[in-house]
Amino acid sequence: MKLIFAPIGIVSGLLAGLLARKGFERLWALIDEEDPPDPGDRGARYAKLVPALLVEGAIFSLAKGIVDRGARVVFARATGTWPGDEAEKGA
């Protein structure tokens, strides 16, 4: 079932990335009027860069986890089989 779920996992991962990006942009707009600092920008200050990266990472991780879990639940309901290791079934 892993091979059947693979394309679904890829698409759900892309969807999670888009949702996370929009969520981060909205949240950052509440925190600061300026755009989030870019790590590649020579003038980026660590005082602003570190919190931006922490918030962005947390949002991306949360979105990916929620979307992945949802895709697996829907797949399991549709097929009767959990897409993953048997050990994960009881988790």
In summary, what is this structure?
The protein has 91 residues and is an all-alpha fold.
Structure explained in plain terms:
The chain is mostly helical and 91 residues long. The protein has one domain (1-36, 62-91). The protein has 3 helices and no strands. The protein has helices at 2-31, 46-79, 86-89. Helix 1 (2-31) packs antiparallel against helix 2 (46-79). It is elongated, with a radius of gyration of 17 Å. The model has no long low-confidence stretch (mean pLDDT 91).
Terminal Cα separation, in Å? Answer: 18 Å
Query: Main β-sheet: number of strands, strand sense, barrel status?
Result: none
Structural class: mainly alpha
CA-atom Rg in angstroms: 17 Å
Number of helices: 3
Mean pLDDT: 91
**C-alpha geometry:** elongated
Beta-strand segment tally: 0
What is the chain-wise order of helices and strands?
A: HHH
Helix content: over 70%
Number of domains: 1
What fraction of the residues are assigned to beta strands by DSSP? under 5%
Low-confidence stretches: none
